[in-house]
Amino acid sequence: MRVLIIHAWAGLPERQFEYAALQRLTGWDVHLLVPTRWRDEYGHDITPRPLPDFADRYHTARLALAGNIPLHTITSRIAPLLSALSPDLIYVYHEPYGVTTFQVALANQSSIKAPIGFHSSQNICKRYPPPFRWMERAVFSWCSFATVLAPSVTDVLRSKGFDKRIEVVPWGIDTKQFSPNLAEGGGPPRPLRVGFVGRVVPQKGIDTILEAFARVEHDDMTLTVVGSGPSRAELEDYAARLDVASRVTWRGYVEPRALPAVYRQFDVVVVPSRTTASWKEQFGRVVIEAAACGVAVIASDSGELPQVVEAAADGRTFSEGNPDALADALDALAADDTALQSAKRAARENTAKNFSIERSLEHLVAALTAAAA
């Protein structure tokens, strides 16, 4: 079976890993269509670099508004590519209201009419204005399946009238790349090393960690903030006012391929996301990346985080925006090294069991096989 996958982020080799594994697992002829240029959420340009697996199965398209999630638009002609490749199945890893999803679905509808599906992570039921509402409805009518990041996304799609097959496909990670430092261990307990990894923006709740640090009894623990964003200067000033600045390191942006080594430097990673009117945590990829590296995880109860933490770690959550509850959770791990080591062990074991690439692919293969049939 020939499968064409359209994915804006698949220009990165680390994002192609999953599709290369899909190709090896199934024997399918998997082709990728990626943009000639993409801009990530930190504003960095991504230049496509194909893995050897996709040397002759790697196709690029020019984009307008590269990096804009809903609005990026393919400016290359799509229908001729579809006709030339003649795929048995098309999978667009993009929201149904997105311009690119509509473009590909329309080109397919007017040419080869292959089975086609989309991916969605939107866990808040939003009623979009025209023309996005019209594009979403058209995509619903033309597509025969969807994959979603979490069960709550299924509820959103159903409430909007999508009545075709939906498969939950949680993120999977390379557990060989994201792996613990097994050489570390033993020796006397040390001050707790706490980390945050993500965008430095209000909804990520970094201020909650700073406030918790001002309340903890174990005031020798340290915090490292990994990531960049517009809130950094404001948060640095807030840390100074809380008198915790001497225990906080602002590391800035780190490339994705360097993240495993970063996670291994922490005992605990905190994911303190805070729900807003237009956003709540859709999954929490940091949870499974940190847990796979043998790091304990404490997360807020925003969106999907409680379910992911339960499956990937050992269920340590706190009410979002509650620094007292977070301080208590941090103090509990700082005071009990046995509990900390147990949490680290559970994290790496549960993630390997529930969130490996192989486990994720089981769900994806089920969705694509049923659609092709």
Report on the architecture of this protein.
The chain is of the alpha/beta class and 373 residues long. The chain has two domains: 2-172 and 357-372, Glycogen Phosphorylase B (Rossmann fold), CATH 3.40.50.2000; 193-354, Glycogen Phosphorylase B (Rossmann fold). The protein contains 13 helices and 17 strands. The chain has a seven-stranded parallel sheet, with helices on both faces. α1 (13-26) packs across α13 (357-372) and α6 packs across α11. The chain is elongated, with a radius of gyration of 22 Å.
Q: Which band does the percent of strand residues land in?
A: 15-25%
Radius of gyration, Cα only, in angstroms?
22 Å
- Our measurement of the CA-to-CA distance between the termini, rounded to an integer number of angstroms, reads 11 Å
Give the CATH level 1 class of the largest domain.
Alpha Beta
Could you please say which CATH topology of the largest domain applies here? Answer: Rossmann fold
Q: Would you tell me the overall average pLDDT?
A: 93
* Series of secondary-structure elements, N-terminal to C-terminal: EHEEEEEEHEHEHEHEEHEHEHEHEHEHHH
Low-confidence stretches: none
Number of helices: 13
Number-wise, the strands total 17
Helix content: 25-40%
Largest sheet: 7 strands, parallel
Coarse structural class: alpha/beta
Lateral arrangement of strands in the main beta sheet: 5-2-1-8-9-10-11
**What best-fitting shape do the alpha-carbon axes yield?**
elongated
User: In the CATH hierarchy, what is the architecture of the largest domain at level 2?
Assistant: 3-Layer(aba) Sandwich
Domain module count = 2
